Amino acid sequence: MTLRYASSPDEKLPFSDPTALPYEQSRRASHPPRERWIKRILPAILTLLALFALFRTAFVCNHRYEPGKPFSRMDVLEEREKVPLEIHVMSKCPDARDCLQKLILPTMVEVSDKVNFTMSFIGSIDPDSDAVSCKHGPGECLGNIILLCAAKVYQDVKIWLGFTNCMMSDYPDIPKRDLVESCAMEHGIDFAKLNTCISDEGEGIGLLRSSIQRSAENNVTRSCTVRLAGEVRCIRDGGEWYDCPGGSSVKDLVGDVNKLYSKGSI
């Protein structure tokens, strides 16, 4: 199944998949309304400041995102004993947004140099075909693919994580084109490269299938599930935190990461 945005009002998409958005439906305006920019500019500035703090003292080019690749002891050794930290989410989920903003981003500010961060998605796979489905519909599947493609094309975590936060901040608008273009511009992402990944037959949908399969293999069904060193560390669902044996605060998660990192074994 091929997914992409139309590049002009006259382009006719040669497929009927509902996630392939025509230009006029996926782009509300050439320039977002003044109110939308006002709404977006403050969160964008705050995000950039947080990411600046996050990577001010840490060199993070070693962060690599490979959907579907399991962590192994050798991977951890190669990453200088970095602790696997993973979230399982749905792109159009308010709990995923809150999990990212209330726990993951502040934690990464403190311990980015000590973790190998991964983001996986939750959905369903048809074992007899290439079809995938997402809880919030085809638009969420496309949103997931967009975020996976950003992580693949821009493997520096500060870029794709910032882009992800930008998108999820306005999760009801995912996957509208003006949101994608705005977030891409804010975080230095080439929209054309992103669209190539989305459009390439087999690539975008393949990334999503692998990501969903990873969540299924780890018995994860709720967005947002946080896993630390391969174990469920905390879940946010229905606006609440639960199944958080070590506590749900940033301080608690940072403390656990530091303990695992200092032990030098996962």
Q: What is the quaternary state of this protein? A: single chain
User: In the CATH classification, which architecture of the domain at 83-263 applies?
Assistant: 3-Layer(aba) Sandwich
Helix content estimate: 40-55%
Please report the number of helical segments: 10
Q: Give the low-confidence spans.
A: 12-19, 22-31, 55-64, 71-79
The main sheet orders its strands as 2-1-5-6-7
The best one-word shape is globular
- Find the CATH topology of the domain at 83-263: Glutaredoxin
| Major sheet details | 5 strands, mixed
| Mean pLDDT level | 81
CATH class of the domain at 83-263: Alpha Beta
Query: How far apart are the termini?
Result: 38 Å
Radius of gyration: 18 Å
Per DSSP, what share of the residues sits in E-state strands of 2 or more residues? 5-15%
Q: CATH superfamily of the domain at 83-263, called what?
A: Glutaredoxin
Q: Name the helix and strand elements from N-terminus to C-terminus, one letter apiece.
A: HHHEHEEEHHHHHEEEH
Classify the secondary structure makeup into a structural class.
Answer: alpha+beta
Q: How many strands in all? A: 7
Family: Belongs to the GILT family.
Organism: Exophiala xenobiotica
Region (Disordered): 1-28
Transmembrane segments: 37-55
